[in-house]
Each structure stands twice: as C-alpha cells, then as structure tokens.
Amino acid sequence: MIFLFSCDVNLPGLPSSKNQTKFPRLISNSKGEILLSWFEEIEPDKWALMSSIFSNKVWSSPNVITKNKEYFINWADFPSTNYINKDTLVAHWLEKSGPGTYDYDVHLSFSFNRGADWTSSQIPHATLIKGEHGFVSFGIGKSMHDVVWLDGRNMFMDHSKEDYGQMSLYHSSFTSNGNLINEYEIDDRVCECCPTSSVRVKDTLVVAYRNRSLDEIRDIYIARRVGDTWEKSYPVHNDGWSIAGCPVNGPMLSANNSNVALAWYTSANGNPSVKVAFSTNSGKNFSTPQRVDLSMPIGRVDIEWISNSEILISWIEDGDDSSNILARRISFDNNLSNETLIEKIPPGRITGYPQMEVFNENVLFAWTENKKTSAIKSKWLPISDIGK
Fold first, then answer.
1. pLDDT attached to residue 356
2. What confidence score (pLDDT) does residue 2 get?
3. In which residue ranges of the chain is pLDDT below 50?
4. Cα dist from 108 to 1, 7, 60, 377, whole Å
5. What is the CA radius of gyration of the chain?
6. How far apart are CA 23 and CA 239, in angstroms?
7. Which residues pair with 87 in a beta bridge?
8. Can you tell me the distance from the alpha carbon of 117 to that of 111, in angstroms, rounded to the nearest whole number?
9. How far is CA 52 from CA 13, 18, 61, 354, 368, in A?
10. What does pTM read for this prediction?
C-alpha cells in the first residue's frame, strides 16, 4: 500500500492502490478522526468495499468490509462507514436483490474492533419487495442510533408510465450492538433518487431530503424526531422547483451543538443555484437562504463547520473548459468569502459527490477521476487558504 502526499500541507493523502478505486466517502467522528470508505476492484469486474481510519495524522492499513458481492455501484448513491462509540463502527452498502436494474437492498454491517472484522450484513427495511432502496444517511446518538433511506416498495419500475408509483422515506433505529428496531415511514412521497442527510442534535434527529409534491414541485424538506415524537415535515424554503424527473442532487446538513447548517441545489425557474441556510434551534426552522454559487453550479454540495459561527461549503460549478470543485466560507450573519478553486475535474457523473472533511486547521477533499481507469484523488488545504 502506498500513500499519496499533498504538496499543500504535510498530511497524508488517502490510501491508494494500483487497482481501480472509486467513490470515496469521508465522515468524521467525535474523536477528531476521519473515516474513509471506497470501492476497489480486486479482480476484473470484482469489487471490494474498503475502509481506513485517519487518526494521529496517519491512515490505518485498509480493511475489507465486504467483497465479491453483487453490489449496486452508483456515482450518487455509494457506501459509508460511521463511528458509533469506542471501537464500534457501522457500514452500509447496496446489494442487488433481483434481476431488475433497480432491484437492490440496503445492507448494514457492524465492526466492534475499529474495522478489523465485520459482522454478517442485515437489511434495515422490513419489506423484501423487489425495488430501489438506498440513499442512506445516519444519525448517531449515545445508545440508540438512526438510519434513514429512500424506499421504493410502492414504486413500479416502468417509469414510462404516467403514474409509476412513488418513492418513500423510511427510518429505523438501531442499538450499538447492531439490533434494528422500529421501522417508520417519514414521508410517503419524495424525490426518487436524491441523497438524504441526517444529523443528531442531542435527543433530536434532523433529516433533510428532497420532497415531491403531487404537481412535481421538488423542494428541500426537513423532518425532525424530537425524543420519540416525529413532527410534521416542512419545506426549508419555497424554491418552487418544478421538474418532472429526479435531479439526483441532494441536500447536506452539518451540526454544531444546537446550530445546524444546510446546503442544497435548486434550479427553480431555470435558474440553477446553491443555497445555504442556518438554524439555531436544532432544525426547528431555518434562516432565509443565502446564495453562494457563481451562476453556473452543478450542485453536489458538502458542508462543514469550521468555527462556532462559520461553515465551509463545497460544490461543483461549470467552468469554461472543465467542471470545478469550489469552496468558500459563510458565517451566521451571511458574510460570504471569496470562492477558492479546489480542483478542475472532468465533466460528467464519474466524479461522484466530492467529499470534504475538516481536521484541525485543515480540510481534506476527495473525489473520483476517470481517465484510462477510475482512481480516487485527494487534496489537503489549510482552512485559512480558502476564501482569501
């Protein structure tokens, strides 16, 4: 195993190999570590889901979470590894369940020794009806935790029909030892393939997702469970984006105590934009959104707190001869910094959703590039260099 070093700061880039790699996911934990998962081709057309932990400025030796399964590998809907507590981790991936293109299930696996070994997988959704199940997000609590997913049990796979059913948003709780309980339908009609985002703020779970109204308005909604009670979902902002099909562009949440930041993409009235809004009350309501893009955004946002009053947002924007990963800072009072070009990337979906995580005074970016083969690329930058 080799490591690629960035010239920007003296921190190691992501673990890399001579094999094809794609679709990294970066998720930090309460200990200041970064958890990484990715797909790696171990034989022709045979893939493994890998994991590594960045701790004490070193990446751990990569571990195999699962391999040689009939995975559903998708640029927008890809696996994750999440820290629960002590040595306990939970990972998720998508696995084919039938002959249909979109017959696949969510699978969860647990590790009780920081990723060295993983349990046999289990499926969080009670139904085994063939169809789409994916776009998973997690809310990690103290003893009980949350998993949220899009559930296609009420959809029909022939989307050429005028009425092809509807995608739903579901939730289940699970314990730290991996027991799943209490499946719950959050919303019975949501956008079919936009990523979800979830955060826990003490006893409150905040879920952001793209809704789908009966007249095809697909704006961002918030659902909250306070204690054991689910509140009625509400639109963060009435963008009024009317679109007949799913844009595959989901929201992103980040929490800092009771403060929650939200970023999303919309193209209401043919005007593409990336917006940010803040909540000071655990997602009960949000401020008037601030637009942060440069007028030609593609979306695929990420968002991270860098202080008690300021966040960092990244997104993809069309450029003259490339697509560009951009980032900038925005404060609670909507003070917006200059944008910073993180990297010029090839156009298209193979780059997936670029990832971003903060470590001390630096930020790590990761994405997929596809030339002769697919490969994960990464870059460290000092936070102070972003938005100058």
1. 97
2. 31
3. 1-8
4. 27, 37, 22, 26
5. 20
6. 30
7. none
8. 6
9. 12, 17, 6, 18, 17
10. 0.95
Exposed, middle or buried: residue 70 (CB in 10 Å: 0-12, 13-18, 19+)? Answer: exposed
Residue with the two structure tokens 């260099």: 385
Contact 57, 11 (CB under 8 A): yes
Strand 144-151 relative to strand 167-175, pairing: antiparallel
For residue 156, which of 147, 148, 164 has the smallest C-alpha distance? 164
Question: How many other C-beta atoms are found inside a 10 Å radius of the C-beta of residue 19?
Answer: 16
Taking the C-alpha atoms of residue 263 and residue 293, their distance in angstroms, rounded to an integer, is 11
pLDDT tens sequence across 291-303: 999 999 999 999 9
Q: Beta strand pairing status for 133-139 and 204-210?
A: unpaired
The two structure tokens encoding residue 146? 């949350």
Q: How many CB atoms lie within 10 A of CB 143?
A: 9
Burial 232-270 (b: 16+ CB within 10 A, else e): ebeebbebebeeeebbbbbbbbbbbeebbbbbbbbbbee
Can you tell me which residue has the tokens 């969860």? 108
**pLDDT digit string (tens) for 37-77?**
999 999 999 999 999 999 999 999 999 999 999 999 999 99
- For residue 122, the one-letter residue type is Q
CB-CB contact of 106 with 92 (8 Å): yes
pLDDT score, position 162: 60
- Segment 333-345, tens digit of pLDDT: 999 999 999 999 9
**pLDDT for 257-267, tens place per residue?**
999 999 999 99
Residues in CB range of 264: below 8 A, 6 or more apart: 208, 210, 220, 236, 249, 250, 251, 252, 274, 275, 299, 301
